[in-house]
């Protein structure tokens, strides 16, 4: 079998995207070039790796097995590249950072500042929930992850770098929005719009409700902060969200964050990496950068958090 690492990267990306077109956009190749690489891999392997439909490509049984080894080989190559970079102490190359959805409201701005100081580092972002990020770390697909709750069942190093407040959000014309303060008991009869059970935001809400022994009605469950904000602004209910997800809407008066007993619920943002992995110089540079600058950056962006 004579398969190149470039072909393995193409195969893994097609498996991730579920289409040649999606993989081509991510890899900056043409769709015909991606299709050709897949055909060459299948020829070398001797098995059909994808089941093809009109618009989607799904892994065959042989493809699912091959994906495990492809990821393992690419992970080993990344470790070798990092080891060679450490010999030269080069702050260059590719840096892949995973992040939970709530981090997309501040991390790109931080990365822009980081890139100004380290222009030779090619930064890639991967978005996923907490479970997906743990899987990416386990497969060595990301160097570092930015998340709230660090993993408890995965050997990792988690270092807090900033406060992460969660607040009650309501429509601007909700009666809570104009109150000087709201007792926790007043939330008992409010309809709540919530995130999915596995999310950190949902866990934070449940901790708050348990603390005050509240059992409000969950009228809607959504997997997206953006969808929840739209529902709240439409007056469909209230929600508990990270303050860092509502900056634009709050500043524009489109959403309210009233003062509620026991809130904001203060958690921490963490920079996380696999415990057994030695970071590349590029990853180490970003780790130091976010630990040094993260708190001040978030404080400047969301200065109303402590008011």
From TrEMBL:
Gene3D superfamilies: 3.40.190.290, Winged helix-like DNA-binding domain superfamily/Winged helix DNA-binding domain. Keywords: DNA-binding, Transcription, Transcription regulation. InterPro entries: LysR_HTH_N (IPR000847), LysR_subst-bd (IPR005119), WH-like_DNA-bd_sf (IPR036388), WH_DNA-bd_sf (IPR036390). GO terms for molecular function: DNA-binding transcription factor activity; transcription cis-regulatory region binding. The gene is cbbR. The keyword Ion transport does not apply. Residues 3-60 form the HTH lysR-type domain. This is HTH-type transcriptional regulator CbbR.
